[in-house]
Structure formats: structure tokens, C-alpha cells
UniProtKB/TrEMBL annotation:
InterPro entries: ADC_synthase, Anth_synth_I-like, Chorismate_C. It holds the Pfam family Chorismate_bind. GO terms for biological process: L-tryptophan biosynthetic process. It comes from the Bacteria. This is Anthranilate synthase component I family protein. One of its GO terms (molecular function) is 4-amino-4-deoxychorismate synthase activity. Residues 54-298 form the Chorismate-utilising enzyme C-terminal domain. It comes from Actinomadura spongiicola.
Length: 323
């Protein structure tokens, strides 16, 4: 295990987790094989509590809208972290197996290494690499059905695509950045997203350290301009995001291939607690209460799987309260 991203350009197959705050965990495995997801015990977690309750979240949205009016940011992704007691006997592989059955996702991954346990059901590709070709597929825009998207969803997606283009352009061959897909509708369990694709070719001399340095944290979970959004969110969010909104995935250094998901739809075990993050992108056109409800929509399916509860129950009904 190492925190050196340069190891990903060496040899072997690696599991990779980078927290939103930048803590890197790279674990190289001696043996890699195809196998079913491992089973494990799972016990329903305790009562969920939120780092921001509805009133605090709505107030945060208003502050972001004020910052937009002042020209500080164009968009920012306001998040909250839910926590529940992790019962004795519950294992992260057990939760990962439940997610694989109940909420299959294109970039799902369960990671259990010393000091780190994550069960991720991410629908969003942060970075894929095949040799020198890299691709990102930012998600912006969430609705229950395709006809539920608002004009602000498309505008937000285009803003983030421009940000990702600029990030990749910092380490790409001149003229190689392209957008082969813009605001395409993707269906996922319980909701739909607008997804775009940005592709580029790495300039000579650049590898994983330079690629992540130029693009992290992912633009879809920060805002634009990224540096201003990060400062603003640091003032509005009371707890660290951890693996949520970071990067979770794998790298095969021998074949120079890899895939890192944006660490959304992710649970992680920490200090006897199970944590889960949810958030929404805020623009000038945002309705604060609707943004709160979007965070509930994004979390509902995953918490149902983890808790074994029926569909349609809101987080408020689950007791997701601010401590």
C-alpha cells in the first residue's frame, strides 16, 4: 500500500481511493482473478443523521445563490453527509453485495484494505485511461423521469463540461480535447441523469499523478470556477466529505489502463459509523427546497438497499436529523 500516485505508472493491479480532501490510498494486489462479489454479513444500520438538516441546507443554497449574484461562482455542488451507527457483525462486503443486487451501477466497487472500507455504487466516470487516451463522463442533471429535467439541468451540465474540458486541457495534447456526447439521458435505478463525455490524449511525460492533479476534485461535485467553489463549499459544509465525491476505482499499470469513478452513491465505514453522502448542484435558477429534495431522491434508493426498507420513504421519515 502507498499514498504515492506515481506507483500507478509502475507495475501491477491497484485498487485506488482518493478522498475529496486528497488523502490517497493505493493498494496493489498480488493475485487478480474474475470472481463473484464476495458475500458477507450485513445488519441494518442505526438511525441516520445528517450533517445539514433541511433548514441548514436551504440556507446554504441561498448563500450560493448570493455568491452567484456577486459573480463569485457560476455553480457549486452543496453536499451533506449522513451517518448511522454500524452494528456489530455488519461487514462492508456484505453491504457491497446488497448494492450489487439492489442497485447495480456501471462503476460499482467494494474496497476493503487496512484502514479503509468503501462500498461504492457510482454511476459516474471520473477518469478512464487506455494508454494515452483519457475520458471523463460528468453527470449533471437528475430527475425521476426524462421529462422531469429543468432548463437549469442542461445549463449546469454544459458549465461542468466546459470545466472538465479546461481541466483536461492542462495536460492534454493541443487540439485533442473533444466532446463526443453532450447532455445524453441515462437511466439508473429510481432516477435518470444527464451525462456528457469529454475525451483527450495525454501530452508526453504525463501520467496518473499529473492527470489527477489537473482534474481533482472532479468538477461535477465541486463547481465553477472550481477554486472559488471549493472555498465557498468549505465554509458551508460542516464535516469532511471523505471518499464521497473523491475517486474510487482501479488501475492496471502493466496495460496502462484504469477506471476511476466519482465517489458518489458511496458508503464508507469509519470510527464505528457508516457514512453516506448526497448533494445537488446549485445554480442561479435553483429552488432551494427542490435542491434539498434532489438530495433526498439521490439517497433514497441506496438507503433503502442498506436499510431493507420499502421504496418511497423520505429521509425525514427515516429520522435523518442533524445531530
Amino acid at each position: 500500500m502507498t499514498s504515492d500516485l506515481g506507483a500507478l505508472d509502475s507495475r501491477g493491479w491497484w485498487a485506488v481511493v482518493v478522498t475529496y480532501e486528497g488523502k490517497v490510498t493505493c493498494a496493489r494486489f498480488e493475485r487478480v482473478r474474475r470472481a463473484p462479489h464476495p458475500g458477507g454479513a450485513w445488519v441494518r444500520p442505526g438511525e441516520w443523521r445528517s450533517s445539514l438538516d433541511e433548514a441548514a441546507y436551504v440556507a446554504g443554497v441561498e448563500k450560493i445563490r448570493d455568491a452567484i449574484a456577486d459573480g463569485v461562482v457560476y455553480q457549486a455542488n452543496l453536499c451533506r453527509v449522513l451517518s448511522a451507527e454500524l452494528p456489530a457483525g455488519a461487514t462492508i462486503e456484505g453491504l457491497g453485495a446488497r448494492l450489487a443486487r439492489g442497485n447495480p451501477a456501471p462503476h460499482a466497487m467494494t474496497v476493503k484494505v487496512p484502514g479503509l472500507e468503501v462500498a461504492c455504487a457510482s454511476p459516474e466516470l471520473y477518469l478512464a485511461r487506455d494508454g494515452d487516451v483519457v475520458e471523463s463522463r460528468p453527470i449533471k442533471g437528475t430527475a425521476r423521469t426524462p421529462d422531469g429535467f429543468l432548463p437549469k439541468d442542461h445549463a449546469e451540465n454544459v458549465m461542468i463540461v466546459d470545466l472538465v474540458r479546461n481541466d483536461l486541457g492542462r495536460i492534454a495534447e493541443v487540439g485533442s480535447v473533444e466532446v463526443p456526447g453532450l447532455c445524453e439521458v441515462e437511466e439508473h435505478p429510481g432516477l435518470v441523469h444527464l451525462v456528457s463525455t469529454v475525451r483527450a490524449r495525454l501530452a508526453g511525460g504525463h501520467g496518473w499523478p499529473e492527470l489527477i492533479a489537473a482534474t481533482f476534485p472532479p468538477g461535477s461535485v465541486t463547481g465553477a470556477p472550481k477554486s472559488s467553489a471549493l472555498k465557498l463549499l468549505g465554509m458551508l459544509e460542516p464535516v469532511p466529505r471523505g471518499p464521497y465525491c473523491g475517486a474510487v476505482g482501479w488501475v492496471d499499470a502493466d496495460s496502462r489502463r484504469g477506471g476511476l469513478a466519482v465517489g458518489i452513491r458511496s458508503f464508507w465505514a469509519e470510527e464505528g459509523l457508516l457514512r453516506f453522502g448526497t448533494g445537488a448542484g446549485i445554480t442561479w435558477g435553483s429552488d432551494p427546497l427542490l435542491e434539498w429534495r434532489e438530495t433526498e431522491l439521490k439517497a433514497a434508493r441506496l438507503l433503502e438497499v442498506a436499510s431493507g426498507e420499502g421504496a418511497g420513504q423520505g429521509l425525514a421519515e427515516r429520522g435523518a436529523r442533524r445531530p
